[in-house]
Write a structure and sequence with these properties.
This protein is of the alpha+beta class. The chain has helices at residues 51-64, 110-127, and strands at residues 2-4, 24-29, 32-36, 73-75, 90-94, 97-104. It folds into two domains: 2-75, no CATH class; 90-142, no CATH class.
């Protein structure tokens, strides 16, 4: 959910907060706070807005930011999250197609790890080279197979 909150200039440089389970609080500054997300294993890819889920996320926000009310809600987004069998993200140069970069499998870590992975990939695309990302991820061949196989 997206919430309108009081605008503090320092919010533009605040970290993501993960106080409870799957919830993430992402301050964007300029009075915008994102709270997410839920995890549904049996939703059958239903991406319609669910009022119970929205209320649950709003309740999480209210425990952290007392001034938030239902009137603070400015947007609700629903989508799917890609994840791998071991819940580890993967990213980097595609084997046998070194002009392509890929990132997926972020699952519930997308709001927190996605920006850093995006920075790695953008740096590689802009400046070239083959960075050693091995300390951050498993080889892409763990998750991607050649079409010849």
């Amino acid at each position: 959910i997206e919430l309108a909150v009081k605008d503090y200039p320092l919010q533009e440089h605040m970290p993501v907060v993960m106080p409870e389970g799957e919830r993430d609080f992402v301050p964007f500054g300029h009075g915008k706070l994102i709270v997410g997300a839920t995890h549904e294993d049996d939703g059958k890819f239903d991406i319609s807005v669910n009022s119970e889920v929205t209320a649950d996320l709003l309740g999480s926000a209210q425990r952290l930011v007392k001034s938030v009310t239902a009137d603070s809600l400015t947007d609700v987004r629903v989508g799917t999250r890609a994840y791998t069998s071991d819940f580890a993200p993967f990213f980097g140069l595609v084997p046998e197609h070194e002009d392509f970069l890929v990132a997926s499998g972020l699952g519930s870590s997308g709001l927190t790890t996605g920006p850093q992975i995006g920075k790695f990939l953008a740096g590689s695309a802009l400046y070239g080279g083959t960075p050693d990302w091995s300390q951050y991820e498993k080889p892409l061949t763990t998750y991607l197979a050649s079409s010849a196989e």
